Amino acid sequence: MDLNLEGRIAVVTGASRGIGRAIALELAREGCNVACVATSAERAEETAQMARDLGVKAKAYGADVSRFDSAQELAASILADHAGGIDILVNNAGVTRDQLILRMSEADWDQVIDVNLKGAFNTSKAFAKTLMKRKGNARIINIASVIGLDGNAGQSNYAASKGGLIAFTKSLAKEFGSRQVCVNAVAPGFIETDMTHGFEGEQREAMRAVIPLGRFGAAEEVGRMVAFLAGDTGSYLTGQTFVIDGGMAI
Ligand code: NAP
C-alpha cells in the first residue's frame, strides 16, 4: 500500500534535531509538507531547509509547547500559512531531567511533565478542530518511550510523563475515532541523539547489553515508523503504542 502522503501537511514539534528532524525529513521524502517546530524558529530552520531541499514546502516555527498560550499562537501562525488546515500532528518535543527521587527537585519534575505531557495536550488541543475537519485520514502521533511502559530508576518524572502520554493517546483515540482521526503513540528504546549522547563508557555498554539487537537505534528508523502511521498504511490503526527498541522491552 502506498503511504499517499504527497501534498499533505504535517506539524512536527521538537524538529530542530534528533528524532524530530528524522521524522520531518522522512515525511518530506514521502512528499509531505512540514511545519518544523522548535523552541525558536532559528533552531528549526536547518531542518526546514533540509526538507525544502527534498522538494516539499517547509517552514520553521518557534514555540514553547509547555505553555498553553504559546501552543495557541503556534497553531494560529501555522493555520494562517495553511488556511485549509493540517493533516498530521507529531508531538515529539521532549526533555529529560534525570535524578533519583531523593535528589529530584520540584523544578525537575515540573519541567519534564510540562514539556512531555502538558505539551502534547497543549498542541493537540490547539490543532484538534482542524484535524477533526479533515474528514478522514488525519493523524496525531505522540512520541512516548519504552520508559513510559517499564519505568526506570532515576527517571520517575520522565516515565510518568511518557506513561501519561500513552494513556492520553488511548483517550484521544476514543474521542476522535468518530471523526476518523487516528491517534497513536510510538515508544522508542535507546536511539542515537543528543538525548543519549551523554551516556558513555560502562553506562552505555550496560544499556547496549540489554538490547537484543545489540545497538542503539537510529533516529531515521523511528522516522520511518512515524511515516508508516501517518500514511494510508496507518488507516486502521488507532489507540496503540508501537514499540521500536531493538527488542529491549520484550
Ligand atoms: P533531542 O535531540 O534532545 O531533541 C529534543 C527536541 O525537543 C528539540 O528539537 C528541542 O528543541 C525540542 N524541545 C524541547 N523542549 C521544547 C519546548 N519546551 N518546546 C518546543 N520544543 C522543545 O531529543 P530526541 O532524542 O530527538 O527525542 C525526541 C523525542 O523522542 C522526545 O520526546 C524523547 O523523549 C523521545 N525519545 C527519545 C529517545 C532517545 O533514546 N533519544 C528514546 C525514547 C523516546 P530545541 O532544539 O529548540 O531545544
Q: Can you describe what's shown?
A:
There is one protein chain. This protein has a single domain, classed as Rossmann fold (3-Layer(aba) Sandwich). The model has no long low-confidence stretch (mean pLDDT 97). The longest helix is centred in the middle third of the chain and has 27 residues, at 106-132. The chain has helices spanning 18-29, 41-53, 68-81, 106-132, 147-150, 156-176, 194-197, 201-209, 219-230; strands at residues 9-13, 33-38, 58-62, 88-91, 138-143, 181-188, 241-244. It has a 7-stranded parallel beta sheet, sandwiched between helices. It has 250 residues and is an alpha/beta fold. Strand 2, helix 2 and strand 3 form a beta-alpha-beta unit. Helix 1 packs parallel to helix 2 (41-53), helix 1 (18-29) packs across helix 9 (219-230) and helix 4 (106-132) runs parallel beside helix 6. Bound molecules: NADP nicotinamide-adenine-dinucleotide phosphate. NADP nicotinamide-adenine-dinucleotide phosphate is lined by residues 13-20, 38-39, 43, 63-66, 92-95, 115, 143, 145, 188, 190-191, 193-196.
